[in-house]
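Internal ticket #5521
Category: modeling
Description: The requester needs a full-assembly model to guide mutagenesis choices. All entity lines are attached below as received. Residue total reported by intake: 618.
Assigned to: D.W.
Attached entities:
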Amino acid sequence: MSSYNFGIAIHGGAGTIEKTLMSPEREMAYNRALQNAVDVGYKTLEAGLSAIKAVEAAVVDLENCPLFNAGKGAVFNSVGQHEMDACIMDGQTLNVGSIAAVRNVKNSIILANLVREHSDHVLLAGDGALEFAKKFNVEIESDAYFHTDQRYDQWQKIKGSDDFQLDHTGEKKYLGTVGAVALDNKGNLAAATSTGGMTNKKFGRIGDTPLVGLGNYANNSTCAVSCTGSGEYLMRAVTAYDISCLMEYKGLSLQKAAEFSILNRLTSLGGDGGVVSIDQDGNIAMVFNCDGMYRASRNQNHNAVAIYR
Amino acid sequence: MSSYNFGIAIHGGAGTIEKTLMSPEREMAYNRALQNAVDVGYKTLEAGLSAIKAVEAAVVDLENCPLFNAGKGAVFNSVGQHEMDACIMDGQTLNVGSIAAVRNVKNSIILANLVREHSDHVLLAGDGALEFAKKFNVEIESDAYFHTDQRYDQWQKIKGSDDFQLDHTGEKKYLGTVGAVALDNKGNLAAATSTGGMTNKKFGRIGDTPLVGLGNYANNSTCAVSCTGSGEYLMRAVTAYDISCLMEYKGLSLQKAAEFSILNRLTSLGGDGGVVSIDQDGNIAMVFNCDGMYRASRNQNHNAVAIYR
């Protein structure tokens, strides 16, 4: 048995997710999807594979599910396109790969991981990232693949306006992103985050998700963090690295660090959102300052899925 | 007289800048350009204007000078284009504006400042940023404006290869960026950074410069920082926010924080580079781990320009 308490935590976005506005069928679908993704990641760890492999596998699963705002379920931007961002980081080496404003790639997180492994650059955007994807035969999908009626209807409601937040019955201000953090049986941490951004966002807008230290960070000496929420505020708060610094420089526990960063720092700026995070002892902290966060976590001792506060 | 010791520090890039390989004429041209830019910024502060106005003015001056890798002197990317990144941040409000992979905009920092003031987004990239620029009648220049023989020759030497570092006589591994940090007479801090990236970089590559907390950061409660160097390493080290956290969470002075972040953290990752930084007491720290950094600083008591260690 490993001396490390390996485990994984995932999220599928945070925001105004009210139980009274969620149908039992829809709630069950979310719970099932979250359980499935956390199981995919956990089984990867259980098989002795790396934290990087586990977070990649879990995020691929979430990207392929139309319920979440990433991959297949990505929202429409202001010109009706799906533009995706992703980041993956290895806590052992601090190697990181990111892609931003990329269209038609089925799994952004796979592309980000290829950037991490095979590019001298950290972050590739737009057509440059797409060209890199083609070099590695990354799976490309047509625009039609990314079309879901739910996201299209959300876009139609605010299309042409300057509004770029989701604000619709049942999921007001739902801030969609997916992410995973893991500790493997060798004591290595990793974090992965992926998103379709915000409905009706201006094209070319890049949020916190693909940016190392902002929406995603991993460092074996502190923690692995994946953020979700109002990206512009998470950026200004440098949330992911803030949690790491609170542990490293102030000696806070993971839970206390995540609470300070989300409940004090992000909240005082006016931002909504949350994080899933894990440290080398296998402690998991899932903290958010809004009504709900789609989330799940699993290790050798527990297995839990939750949506509301 | 103001109770704040207002002042400004600027840089024009860091790297292998060897005195033996620099002609006296060229050295004089750099010294003159640095003095000019720091004066432009200092006079803005002296006139009672904000730190944001001062760093913007100084960076515009550096962007308009063909000697530095930003604006007019931007390097060529792998397909012979000039793709520019910039970021500006207000330490009082933590409002930040960034642009990435933008072509043909004369002054990237002006566009970044417009994003900060007029966009709900923090970071706009590529054509989306260019569209935003046109809405605000930002000055656009033809590709010819950005052509300088020196940069073209640099590109020709490595074009078609996978090499993307500058590596030529006199400026081996010169890592070009420009930046400014300032404290104004009301006690507000600001930071601005701008770059043309790396010669022969793959198109779509985004470095640390436009990314809040990575290449540029300002917070009245700690410091203002502008980075220059090997961007991929500055990103992985989250250098700008790291310095702020070392002050806030560990209680280090600005100088000690900048030294730890550059001389320990960045160096241990294998990265080259440096920072200019200022705190609310007007302390200025300029730290780098390579042969030289084009830099200048000025306040009511001193006025200095330097290139070498």
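Resolution: model delivered.
Comment from assignee: Helices of chain A lie at 24-46, 51-63, 108-118, 126-135, 149-158, 231-237, 239-250, 254-269.
Ticket closed.
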